[in-house]
Design brief:
Helices cover 34% and strands 27% of the residues. It is an alpha/beta fold and 324 residues long. The protein is globular and about 70 Å long. Bound molecules: adenosine-5'-triphosphate. Adenosine-5'-triphosphate binds next to helix 1. The site of adenosine-5'-triphosphate has 10 residues, from helix 1.
Length: 324
């Protein structure tokens, strides 16, 4: 899949680049129970080095639970998990230094000043610095990168919600992680902060080969950022692929809209390219305002989640398998 990187140049996903890509994260048959409630019923997922993956799913689907297990913050009930060659339950300090984490919410360190806090967290990574991955990031450079230069001397408790979230992201990347987990990183971001964050994600993936697993409820964001989208529903991954691959999962025609001789027309078709060719053969330059609308990621999301809610998650997953 080719996404649009911040500079406007196309970003080529690691899988499509032809470069050998190492699997850095793998879960198979991952299960999690909270008491008698089974939240994860056999999650299988992988991520390659430098890949950006969006984990989507309805509220309560288990996205945070999955991420916390991969980070080593939560013990799983069953299944195999490996991140950067280690089981997260037994990851040592060296292993932890290679990860970056942005939790959904945390409200400690209110009295610290933003620059001091970032510097403090950064110091943990210094012993793990090596050629090619100098750790930590320079504090002021990173503050500039997340747009907090003016707030650098402010106490955390005086930052706005969006500014606090920018600081969370800075803390997550201060150690130049090889694998970065971001749980709803852009919640509360204004449009400029959101765009800056997207630029940062592309930069980390492209220039530092960082593998990024993020959760979001913003489907446009997922489509823009992710090489691969995973949809978690009913305790399992029911769809796994690029936005284009996922669009092929819903049996919905594309819509072709055009104007000819001053009249607007709408036509649904499973082959929009052929329809457009036929239109031009008939009307030539008489066609104006041509637009083709494919099923959107939102259509796929709603269809898959509704299938799951009808108790059809397993067949949805099987259907996807046939389409890969
Ligand atoms: N510590 C816990 N103890 C008991 N139940 C929990 C615990 N943490 C989460 N749950 C339950 O597990 C389910 C999955 O929660 P989780 O936070 O992983 O979902 P999510 O997909 O991240 O949701 P959201 O999109 O709302 O953030 C929910 O039903 C939640 O109530």
């Amino acid at each position: 899949m080719t996404n649009q990187a911040p500079t406007g140049r196309p970003r080529v996903s690691p899988a499509a680049s032809g470069r050998p890509t190492e699997t850095v994260l793998r879960a198979s048959g991952l299960r999690m129970n909270y008491g008698s409630t089974e939240v994860l019923k056999g999650v299988d997922l992988t991520a390659r080095r430098g890949e950006v993956i969006a984990l989507l799913g309805p509220n309560g689907a288990g996205k945070t639970t999955t991420i916390e297990i991969l980070e080593g913050f939560r013990r799983r009930s069953a299944g195999d998990v490996e991140v950067l060659g280690s089981d997260p339950e037994h990851g040592d300090e060296e292993w932890r230094s290679r990860l970056g984490v942005v939790l959904q919410s945390w409200r400690d360190h209110a009295a610290w000043r933003a620059r001091d806090l970032l510097h403090h967290f950064g110091r943990f990574y210094a012993p793990h610095s090596r050629p090619g991955r100098v750790r930590p990031h320079d504090t002021d450079e990173l503050l500039a990168l997340v747009g907090l230069t003016e707030q650098a001397g402010q106490r955390v408790k005086t930052l706005s919600g969006g500014q606090r979230r920018r600081l969370d992201v800075a803390i997550g990347v201060v150690g130049r992680p090889e694998v970065l987990f971001l749980d709803e990183p852009t919640a509360g971001f204004d449009p400029k902060a959101r765009r800056d964050f997207h630029d940062l994600v592309f930069r980390l993936a492209d220039e530092e080969d960082t593998t990024i697993l993020l959760t979001t409820h913003d489907l446009d964001e997922a489509e823009k950022l992710a090489d691969r989208i995973l949809l978690l529903a009913g305790g399992a991954i029911v769809a796994d692929g690029s936005a284009d691959q996922l669009a092929g999962l819903v049996a919905r025609d594309s819509e072709v809209v055009w104007t000819a001789d001053g009249t607007r027309h709408v036509h649904s078709t499973d082959n929009p390219a052929r329809h457009v060719a036929e239109l031009y053969a008939v009307h030539g330059d008489g066609i104006t305002d041509l637009k083709i609308t494919r099923p959107s990621l939102e259509d796929v999301y709603m269809a898959m989640v509704q299938r799951h809610e009808r108790g059809d998650a397993e067949s949805a997953a099987a259907h996807f398998g046939e389409n890969r």
